[in-house]
Automatic annotation (TrEMBL):
This is 3'(2'),5'-bisphosphate nucleotidase CysQ. It comes from the Bacteria.
């Protein structure tokens, strides 16, 4: 099985597992449901990667960071449950599973599953988004939209769309439901690795908000800002954010 196919399968199956966990813990307190989701999905992904790619390192949001990954040639970067808050709220579908592979300096494969929407998008073949809307749609967190996203919205005469997880936000652009995702409130490598791989395969622009490169498998996994948008909007957005 290719790395692309494996990423897609693992993201999809982890998502199916999370749907079962959500149902089984539907009567439990929200925090218990969220913790169960994080643990079950993490355990599944770690076990599957150990079985199918035993020589590869893994960086997971829910795991202990092993510095051995820094000398590894191949590192899987996973977020077993991106959007834990939304997962905990029964009925919400804007949460995701991220599975990406970094190899010798580059993201080479990735998949993002939106389990509650029955959607998985994976490299290498991702359809480009359909035609953009007239007024750019800027996707933001529903709780605290970052000021930089509001500045982009104002400068481009756009509108805001509120969503939960980073994976759901990036896929909203790939699927043609939004046009720009700009974030400056703090993230980690596992928040963006798989979404960035999928966005690149769809022909979208991905970078830091100053236009600089996104670097993965770094000693400090913090990767605090992100820009994903349609190529035709890059110059206008960077005029605000860079």
């Amino acid at each position: 099985m290719s790395d692309h196919a494996l990423a897609a399968r693992l993201a999809t199956e982890a998502g199916q597992l999370l749907l079962r966990v959500r149902e089984n813990f539907s009567d439990a307190p929200t925090e218990v449901r969220k913790a169960a989701g994080d643990k079950h999905s993490h355990d599944f992904l770690i076990e599957e990667l150990a079985d199918r790619r035993p020589a590869d390192a893994v960086l997971s949001e829910e795991g202990v960071d092993d510095p051995a990954r820094l000398s590894a040639r191949r590192v899987w970067i996973v977020d077993p449950l991106d959007g834990t808050r939304e997962f905990g709220e029964l009925g919400r579908d804007d949460w995701a599973v991220h599975v990406a592979l970094w190899q010798t300096g580059q993201l080479v494969a990735g998949a993002v599953a939106l389990p509650a929407q029955r959607i998985t998008l994976a490299t290498p073949d991702v359809a480009p988004p359909p035609k953009a809307s007239t007024a750019p749609r800027v996707v933001v967190s529903r709780s605290r939209p970052p000021s930089i996203a509001l500045a982009v919205r104002d400068a481009l005469g756009g509108t805001l769309i509120e969503l939960g997880s980073a994976g759901a936000k990036v896929l909203s652009i790939v699927l043609g439901r939004a046009d720009i995702y700009v974030h400056a409130g703090g993230q980690y490598e596992w928040d963006s690795a798989a979404p960035v791989a999928v966005a690149r395969a769809a022909g979208l622009h991905t970078s830091r908000i100053d236009g600089g490169p996104l670097l993965y498998n770094q000693p400090n996994p913090s990767l605090p800002d992100l820009l994903v948008c349609r190529p035709g909007l890059v110059e206008a957005v960077l005029a605000v954010t860079a």
